[in-house]
Amino acid sequence: MRHFFAALMALVLIAPVAVAQDQDTDPSAFETGPVQSLLQTHRAAIERASRKTIQPTIDALVAAGLPEIQQVLQKWQAREIWQRESDKLFFAGEEISKRTIRLTDFDTGETVGELSTKELKQIKPNSGVQALISTALVRFQLSDPDPDLRAAALLSIERDPGPDLLAPLRASIATETDPALRARKDRVNTLLTISFDPDEAARLAEARGYY
């Protein structure tokens, strides 16, 4: 009987440790909101992001259709996402002193505490990853309620056009309510079509109409 109780106590002491270890590796173990759950699903990719590997993760975040993802992308691009070392959760971080960061939950928008940088890991995307995030942000900004942001997104496309911007630009034209912005979008769409549309007939047709 004495041996039985000793074995039982050992199990009781070990169980919490096992649960904690599982939570460090299994995103489903966290009781989190949808944004945090999504970030945890792609945790490894975010932690080790490179231009060659991160595009599927960015696409998955955008495809989730969560309104908070725009802020996540903005904070990620600005290197203002911090990961709490104790549980690997991601937060928006604001530096309030040289070694102290105020953390904000992406799902609730609430401050969750202030931690030393020793207890955190800053997510630092390189310039290549930042460029891909910038492209993803344009998709949101082209249809943003603020016309100034829509105009800024258009300017970004004009300065750095690319084939991956053609689809989101076209999608935003149908809902554009500002006549001046609609005209600009139509013009930029024509130029992108001439340069990047995979359909040769479409490229030629737009070129004939434009020139």
In terms of DSSP E residues, the strand content is 5-15%
Helicity, in percent? Answer: 55-70%
Order of helices and strands: HHHHHEEEEEHHHHH
The number of distinct β-strands equals 5
Radius of gyration over all CA atoms, rounded: 23 Å
- Order of strands across the biggest sheet? 4-3-2-1-5
* Distance between the ends: 94 Å
Arithmetic mean pLDDT: 86
Kindly name the structural category.
alpha+beta
**What form results from the Cα inertia axes?**
elongated
Instruction: Tell me the major beta sheet.
Output: 5 strands, antiparallel
User: What's the total helix number?
Assistant: 10
Unreliable stretches: 3-30
Summarize the structure.
The chain is α+β, with helices and mostly antiparallel strands. It contains 10 helices and 5 strands; from the N terminus they run H-H-H-H-H-E-E-E-E-E-H-H-H-H-H.
Description:
The chain is an alpha+beta fold. It is built from 10 helices and 5 strands; from the N terminus they run αααααβββββααααα. It has helices at 2-25, 34-41, 43-47, 55-63, 69-77, 127-141, 147-159, 166-173, 179-196, 200-210, and strands spanning 81-84, 90-97, 100-104, 111-116, 120-123. The chain has a 5-stranded antiparallel sheet with strand order 4-3-2-1-5. A hairpin with a 5-residue loop joins strand 1 and strand 2. The model is unreliable at 3-30 (pLDDT under 50).
Walk me through the topology.
Elements: H1 2-25, H2 34-41, H3 43-47, H4 55-63, H5 69-77, E1 81-84, E2 90-97, E3 100-104, E4 111-116, E5 120-123, H6 127-141, H7 147-159, H8 166-173, H9 179-196, H10 200-210
Antiparallel strand pairs: 1-2, 1-5, 2-3, 3-4
Helix pairs in contact: 4-6, 5-6, 6-7, 7-9, 8-9, 9-10
